[in-house]
Write a structure and sequence with these properties.
With 727 residues, the chain is α/β, with parallel strands linked by helices. The chain folds into five domains: 5-203, P-loop containing nucleotide triphosphate hydrolases (Rossmann fold, 3-Layer(aba) Sandwich), CATH 3.40.50.300; 211-388, P-loop containing nucleotide triphosphate hydrolases (Rossmann fold), CATH 3.40.50.300; 409-509, Winged helix-like DNA-binding domain superfamily/Winged helix DNA-binding domain (Arc Repressor Mutant, subunit A, Orthogonal Bundle); 529-605, HRDC domain (DNA polymerase, domain 1), CATH 1.10.150; 624-726, ATP-dependent DNA helicase RecQ (Arc Repressor Mutant, subunit A). 50% of the residues lie in helices and 11% in strands. It is built from 35 helices and 17 strands. A seven-stranded parallel β-sheet has the order 3-4-2-5-6-1-7, with helices on both faces. A six-stranded parallel β-sheet has the order 8-13-12-9-11-10, sandwiched between helices. Strands 14-17 form a two-stranded antiparallel ribbon. The longest helix has 22 residues, at 584-605.
């Protein structure tokens, strides 16, 4: 089908109300109308849907739009119906429909009323649907979110790889594949699988100049998120979490702290999920807390910020999720909270999967780590990952690394050592092994090849492993090395890398962020010294007097780090005191009255401005383990039985029990304790803990012979003491 430029522009104006096409839209549409296959890579918010919606509306027959999510389908169908009086112009065909609704959809298609049919791949493969489509005039097939086809993509779905065979069995028509995120390898995989390698590739820039990228160390993340959202009142935002449980938890914490937030994940009742999505789209809800199930194709242009509570599984996923901010061209802020412990959780998710899938997953995770920890321009690093060159001077301080650049150092010698190590190890190792080889560390793979690594093993021992990871990332962006994706990230030298070894030249480098160090420093400063030493001294005296009155060690009332936190935060209510580290509501109620009176008086007399930092109201502890432990002890179950009942080790169980009693809750341990000692001995041990300065495990370990009590038994005795005497 051929159509004049004037007619095409008239249709654009008459149907959608736009005066001009964006980017390559017009060329893509013309290519499709001519009956040609296409591969379209266009960033989120770039106008991908127009590339198949307009040609479908002006072509003969019905276009089949393959889409992975019901929410995506519904949103786009609602938008299209808004342009027409006839709601049958676009339909959805998926598992959410009743038999009657399905019959209506097929009848509308047969009558030529429906121009676009959104269908899930699972519905497309059903034999009754295939038989129906064979009787239908199909204008073309649009494969949306086409990255789902590729095993190298971030959201691989096996059913997507069957699409070409299904299409061939129905009716031959042009194919247009579209995605916002595809590395060169993924693009190649999509086109090969759909057999459109001879089709035209339309590759838009991945750069979203209106988005600000920032990575923050993850510490007291709920408070960080609440404080941030309270500075963005009246604006829409999305918070992504990895698990459904975390989505529910964060949404509830936001709600009880006065923020209009709703959860969204695949485990919600479908009706509730749709309601929450609609509330967000209609501005009845300011914040949606979601898993990655939310957002694919959601057309809300005024999302002003996207927060990642957890580090994403891949850079493709990160790019797509962050791309939902600022689709109206206004500034969008992208904040990701990073903690290496989250990486360990991601790696655990891979356990039990096929080996090849695990290797791909680990490679994607490593790229996410690299992006998070790098100190070079984040926009440059991200765009390079997608195969696009970018001059960091054009970032315009729209990432945290360009806004607050780190000091650069001469890197010629370090780059040379790295490249020599890669070459000397015969280009057979991944980044993790290369960094180990440089510092002189070993693992099983390195040991197997140690005889061939003598010249380079330990050649970079003057720097830690994390430093060499930084050098690897920078050498990668500078195109001195490449990562072989088919061999799951093995490092190889490029031609430029080979030239550098023989003729090195000056190169400036920066050392990566050390978020673990940042975290440690923040915690140690909080625990180390009080900002107000006089307040701290007064609180310490108060604790000492109270301890003498009730004949308990001072540390069992409030620990020293708790006093430090009080001297920094100045809590003046029981609720505020309960939020102080190591206190909890139980201790706050039991010992806190005198402390908050003294703090309140001190604040007034010295005209102290208390920290504006909010006190986050926490959700009541609903830990199933806590309830289970309390109930199991009340039933007089043994420690071994309680641990096995929840799949916990004894150490893990005791740790949870310590947290419970230190939070002010009593545990019924008599039946456990009297298996070890009699009533008189129990009192003697309580007396011992009462007389020791910190009623600590270490002091008890010295006091009691190992033949009498092992480590776990001493921990139990200490837990019993805190529970019975302090609580």
């Amino acid at each position: 089908m051929s159509i004049s430029t004037a007619t095409l522009h008239k249709n654009l104006k008459d149907i959608f109300g736009y005066d001009h096409f964006r980017g390559d839209q017009e060329e893509i549409i013309n290519n499709l109308l001519k009956g040609n296959d296409s591969m379209v890579i266009m960033p989120t918010g770039g106008g991908k849907s127009m590339c198949y919606q307009l040609p479908a509306l002006i072509s003969d027959g019905c276009a089949i739009i393959v889409s992975p999510l019901i929410a995506l389908m519904k949103n786009q169908v609602d938008v299209l119906r808004g342009y027409y009086k006839n709601d049958s112009i676009a339909h959805v065909l998926n598992s959410s429909l009743t038999k009657t609704q399905t019959a209506t959809v097929k009848n509308d298609i047969s009558n030529g009323i429906t121009k676009l049919l959104y269908v899930a791949p699972e519905s497309l493969v059903k034999s009754e649907n295939i038989a129906f489509f064979k009787t239908t005039k199909i204008s073309f097939y649009a494969i949306d979110e086409a990255h789902c086809i590729s095993e190298w993509g971030h959201d691989f779905r096996p059913e997507y790889r069957k699409l070409k065979n299904i299409i061939d069995s129905i009716y031959s028509a042009p194919i247009i594949a579209l995605t916002a995120t595809a590395t060169p390898k993924v693009r190649q995989d999509i086109m090969k699988n759909l057999q459109i390698s001879s089709g035209k590739l339309f590759l838009d820039s991945f750069n979203r100049s209106n988005l600000f990228y920032e990575i923050k160390p993850k510490k007291d993340v709920a408070k960080q998120i609440i404080q941030y959202i309270q500075t963005r009142k009246g604006e829409s935002g999305v918070i992504y979490c990895l698990s459904r449980k975390k989505v529910e938890e964060i949404a509830e914490i936001l709600q009880i702290n006065g923020i209009n937030a709703l959860p969204y994940h695949a485990g919600l009742d479908p009706k509730k999920r749709v309601e929450n999505q609609e509330a967000f789209l209609m501005d009845d809800c300011a914040v949606i807390v979601a898993t990655i199930a939310f957002g694919m194709g959601i057309d809300k242009p005024d999302i002003r910020y996207v927060i990642h509570h957890d580090i994403p599984k891949s850079l493709e996923g990160y790019y797509q999720e962050t791309g939902r901010a600022g689709r109206d061209g206004g500034k969008g802020d992208l904040i990701t909270f990073y903690d290496y412990k989250d990486i360990e959780k991601l790696e655990k998710f891979l356990q039990g999967k096929p080996v090849a899938e695990q290797e791909v997953g680990r490679l994607l995770i490593m790229e996410t780590i690299a992006f998070s920890e790098t100190s070079i321009c984040r926009r440059k690093y991200l765009l390079y990952y997608f195969g696009e060159e970018f001059d960091e001077s054009k970032c315009d301080k729209m990432c945290d690394n360009c806004r607050d650049p780190k000091i650069q150092i001469e890197g010629k010698l370090f780059i040379q050592k790295l490249l020599t190590a890669i070459k000397g190890s015969k280009e057979r190792f991944k980044p993790k092994e290369i960094s180990k080889i440089l510092v002189g560390e070993s693992n099983s793979l390195i040991k197997q090849n140690i005889n061939q690594l003598e010249e380079v093993f330990g050649s970079g021992s003057e720097k830690p492993s994390a430093f060499w990871h930084s050098i690897i990332r920078q050498a990668y962006v500078k195109k001195l090395i490449t990562k072989e994706i088919e061999s799951y990230g093995i490092l190889k030298l490029t031609n430029d890398g080979e030239k550098f070894i023989s003729k090195p030249y000056s190169l400036l480098i920066t050392e990566d962020h050390d978020y673990e160090q940042n975290k440690t420093t923040a915690i140690s400063s909080q625990k180390g010294t009080a900002a107000d030493e006089l307040m701290f001294s007064i609180l310490k005296d108060t604790r000492k007097k109270l301890a003498k009155e009730i004949n308990l060690p001072p540390a069992i009332i409030f620990t020293e780090p708790s006093l430090v936190d009080m001297a920094n935060q100045y809590p003046i209510t029981i609720e505020e005191l309960s939020k102080i580290q190591g206190v909890g509501i139980g201790k706050a109620n039991k010992y806190g009255k005198k402390f908050i009176q003294i703090i309140h008086q001190y604040v007034q007399e010295n005209e102290i401005e208390r920290p504006e930092e909010i006190t986050v109201r926490s959700v009541a502890n609903k830990s199933s383990n806590k309830i289970y432990i309390i109930q199991s002890l009340d039933k007089k179950l043994t420690i071994a039985d309680i641990a096995s009942g929840k799949g916990l080790s004894t150490d893990e169980l005791l740790t949870e029990m310590e947290e419970i009693v230190e939070g002010g809750t009593r545990l019924n341990l008599s039946h456990v304790i009297f298996e070890m000692i009699d009533e008189d001995e129990r009192q003697d041990i309580h007396n011992f803990f009462s007389e020791t300065e910190g009623f600590s495990f270490d002091e008890a370990r010295v006091e009691f012979d190992e033949d009498i009590f092992n480590d776990n038994e001493i921990r139990l005795l200490r837990i019993d003491f805190i529970s019975q005497v302090a609580n």
